[in-house]
Specification:
The chain has 224 residues and is an alpha/beta fold. 35% of the residues lie in helices and 27% in strands. The chain is globular and about 45 Å long.
Length: 224
């Protein structure tokens, strides 16, 4: 399996999803689309992973966002499956007509989701850190949601997520250090968040493996 991983800034790496790809024997092409402008040949990839970002999926003042929109649109049209994570899930929805917007309510912390297909998307808890939301595009199937909005959907062979299955204790350390001001603004205790992430890490890894294995096995995403 050949995977293109789209990373949008230094503090948002692939984490658990990279561990999963490596265990599956995937060839991983890490593309820092925020600092690289190289062309991508979709024929060379069996799947794309679009990670989270501090930016909003509706902010076209960020020069790489329109470029990634076109890349995701072309990938789905050419039947190259996409895994969109938080920002990536929002951008994938936008690429196919969904609306992305600032939500009235943020979600930060380890929260359950309401899953309509728990054999594919377990109900969690999953880690959330987002201020924006989106509408599921026409033709996509909602898989999970929360009182704030959609949490998972299928668009053809692609899977969009609002939550972060990739998060690790190291990633959380970086996020708390880098974005501490956001936590203060939302009244979230950074130390409590770190402690809860430490407790959740083994089960989160198990849930993430089940989610990624279930999706790729169901859709035949194996590079063969």
């Amino acid at each position: 399996m050949r995977a293109l991983v789209l990373q949008h800034e230094e503090p948002t790496p692939a984490g658990v999803s990279l561990d999963w790809l490596e265990e599956r024997g995937a060839e991983v092409d890490l593309h820092r689309i925020d600092v690289e402008e190289r062309a991508v040949d979709l024929a060379e990839h069996d799947m794309i992973v679009s990670l989270g970002s501090e930016f909003a999926a509706f902010d076209d003042h960020i020069p790489w966002i329109p470029r990634e929109l076109e890349l995701l649109r072309e990938a789905v049209e050419r039947d190259v499956p996409v895994l969109g994570v938080c920002f990536g899930g929002q951008l994938l929805a936008r690429a196919f007509g969904g609306r992305t917007f600032r939500s009235d309510v943020s979600e930060i912390g380890w929260l359950p989701v309401r899953s309509h297909e728990p054999e594919l998307v377990p109900e969690g808890p999953w880690f959330q850190w987002h201020f924006d939301s989106f509408t599921v595009p026409d033709g996509a199937r909602l898989i999970a949601d929360s009182p704030v909005g959609p949490q998972a959907y299928l668009l053809g062979r692609s899977l969009g997520l609002q939550f972060h299955p990739e998060v690790t204790t190291r990633i959380m350390d970086d996020w708390v250090r880098e974005y501490r001001h956001e936590l203060a603004g939302q009244g979230v205790d950074p130390d409590g968040l770190l402690e809860e992430t430490e407790r959740q890490a083994p089960e989160n890894r198990r849930r993430a493996w089940a989610l990624l294995d279930g999706w790729t096995d169901r859709e035949g995403i194996d590079g063969r």
